[in-house]
Every structure is written in structure tokens, then in C-alpha cells.
Amino acid sequence: MKRTQVDALTTLIEDFNTLFIRLPMVQRLGFSALSVVHTLSRRGPMRLTALTATEQLTQPAITSLVQRLEEDGLVERRADPTDGRAVLVTLTAAGADIVRSRHASRVDRLAELIAGLDGAEQDAIAAAMPAFARVIKLGAA
Question: From the centroid of its chain, how far is CA 64?
Fold first, then answer.
């Protein structure tokens, strides 16, 4: 892909992300809180230090955020079974419910938007999905 195409793709992804994060949802939480909840739903229990790295927040900021999420019943802290000195942050059932309801809400809204495209545009999006999945895997490595 040419650099100009990558530049255009980057702009499209940024614009799509802006649209996507604003799609209707059942419960409103701040971006950082939602990011932590979604990270835990996909990766499972994590140490605070790992969350600090994935969420790009300072240690005091992630500690405060996790405390608020814990008070809201969305996460809980448990002893790390591999290291008694460490703590794992894990998603609660209420936190998992938020992730599921947000996903369902976004699926509904995105389906409505995609229905406004013609068949060729819908096919183009479907055809690009495996490539995007591969880019995500490469970025996670």
C-alpha cells in the first residue's frame, strides 16, 4: 500500500473511531473506564502494572480508576495466585454485562448504518474484515 493510501486509511479509521465510540450505549462511562472494562473482558484478569501499560495511564491514575470501578461494582481485586504480593483486577458480572450491552447496542446501530450502503459497499466491508483482523493480530504481537 502506498503511504498516501495509508494516510487516507488512518484518517478514515480515526473518523470511524470517533463515530463508533459515540454510538448509543446503555450505560455511560468515561473513555478510560470503558477502556479498562473492555480490556479486562478481552484479556482476563490483569495486574495494575499491566493495565497501566495497556491503558497508557500513570500508576496513580489507573489505581484511582480501578478503585472507582470497584466501588461501582464493575471490577474487583483478587490476590494473584502466582504471587501472593500482587493483585489481579478482574471484571465482575456487572462489568461483563456492560460490555455485552454496549456491544449489542453498537451492533444494532452499526447494522442500521451499514444497511444504508449499497450491496457493493457492504461486500467491500465484509471482504476487508479478514485483513483488518490480521492487522490487529500483528499490532498485538
Answer: 19
Cα 66 to Cα 11, 41, 93, 97: the distances in Å are 32, 14, 16, 17
pTM of the model: 0.80
DSSP 11-74: HHHHHHHHHHHTS--SS---HHHHHHHHHHHHH-SEEHHHHHHHHT--HHHHHHHHHHHHHTTS
**70: CB partners within 8 A, 6+ apart:** 76, 77
Give the list of residues 6+ apart from residue 52 with CB closer than 8 angstroms, or none.
Answer: 58, 59, 62
pLDDT tens track for 76-132: 999 999 888 889 999 999 999 999 998 898 899 999 999 999 999 999 999 999 999
